[in-house]
Amino acid sequence: MKKLLVCTGGGDCPGLNAVIRGIFKAAKKTKEWEIYGSIEAFNGVMAEPTHIVKLTKSKVGGIHVKGGTILKTTNKGNPLQFPVQDEDGNIVFEDRTDTLAKKIKSLGFDAVINIGGDGSQKISKALFDLGVPIIGVPKTIDNDLSATDTTFGFQTAVQIATDSFDKLVTTAESHHRVMIMEVMGRDAGWIALHTAIAGGAEICLIPEIPYDIEKVKEKIDSRYEKGRGFVNIVIAEGAKAKDGKVFGSEREMVSEHLRLGGVAFQLSAELKAAGCKPEIRETVLGHIQRGGTPVGYDRVLATMFGVKAFELVQNEKFGEMVSFKNNNYCSVSLEEAVKDYNFVDKEGFLVQGAKAMGMSFGD
Ligand code: F6P
């Protein structure tokens, strides 16, 4: 029997379990493979003793409806920048990819499928360059990978945000308030833009279009002057004012990213400072957007990504990442996969169409 190792890395995302199940079911059907999972991304491989589990029918059955990942995940412990303490107790980063590649080989795995976002696929690429037979599966609620038209988790996040937005509209209307709802997305405004259009927001603020607070206030004032008496704003966590900077906590030393969150409160303070009169309330949706069961669309996408990933393994097309392009399940090289970030095009139809309907982006 050949041995296949699967792992999930980076932030969790609805649909991860559906990918694992898709891989498992397709691989089992061949009767040629045993499937294993590394717990908490590659940390399970690096651990001594290793933390690797054999996947079985009973472990995988029915998990496609379940949020999170049965293999656990982490955005700490990137082998390319592995955090270790030096003699003075300071955190320093070491490249441990070579050790990881050797360990994967010594454990006798014939193939690896790494499910994760851009950070995880950079790890896949580094491992492939060291001779590991690896396939990537893209995952992100942020929709920020340019090598695939969409990823599982994104539709679920948008649905959760839209449902929340709808609830905020009725309370905004009842109280004549300005409601600011902050959504995730890191440096891309996709979740915010889709939610704003789906919910019918008056204002949508995204990282790709730095906002002018006076323009945001003008839009609010005009709504009240027209007697509409309430305003709903969607703001992406990575949005910033012109000449302003992204609102986030200090970089956590063991994590790759600056931790974002809280820009809704900054916007609220800026509006008050600019003389905005109506009452303002802020909602930060946070990890709610990543939790729970994936919507049907994401289950299909995730399941087929799993099946496609195994097909690539069977055909020994290593060094590729599964992709969904032009309504087609295909693959791209890992090199291509990690090249470009997928930003919202501010001249594109989604933004221009929303503007044509009167939505303000604060520019
Ligand atoms: O990349 C997915 C994401 O949910 C981002 O939208 C968000 O900024 C980040 O992860 C949050 O990460 P953590 O779970 O580490 O707080």
Task: Note the main attributes of this structure.
Rossmann fold, single chain, 18% strand, alpha/beta, 4-stranded parallel sheet, binds 6-O-phosphono-beta-D-fructofuranose
CATH class of the largest domain: Alpha Beta
Strand tally, please? 13
Bound molecules: 6-O-phosphono-beta-D-fructofuranose
Overall structural class, as computed from helix and strand content, comes to alpha/beta
Output the CATH topology of the largest domain: Rossmann fold
**CATH architectural type of the largest domain:** 3-Layer(aba) Sandwich
Note the overall shape.
elongated
Q: Work out the strand percent.
A: 15-25%
Quote the average pLDDT.
95
Give the radius of gyration: 22 Å
Report strand order across the widest sheet: 3-2-1-6-7-12-13
Binned, the helix content reads: 25-40%
- Tell me the count of domains: 2
Structure, described:
With 363 residues, this protein is α/β, with parallel strands linked by helices. It folds into 2 domains: 195 residues, Rossmann fold, CATH 3.40.50.450; 137 residues, 3-Layer(aba) Sandwich (Rossmann fold). It contains 12 helices and 13 strands. It has a 7-stranded mixed sheet, sandwiched between helices. The chain has a 4-stranded parallel sheet with strand order 9-10-8-11, with helices on both faces. It has a two-stranded antiparallel sheet with strand order 4-5. α1 runs parallel beside α10 and α6 crosses α7. The radius of gyration is 22 Å and the shape is elongated. The structure holds 6-O-phosphono-beta-D-fructofuranose. 6-O-phosphono-beta-D-fructofuranose (F6P) binds next to loops.
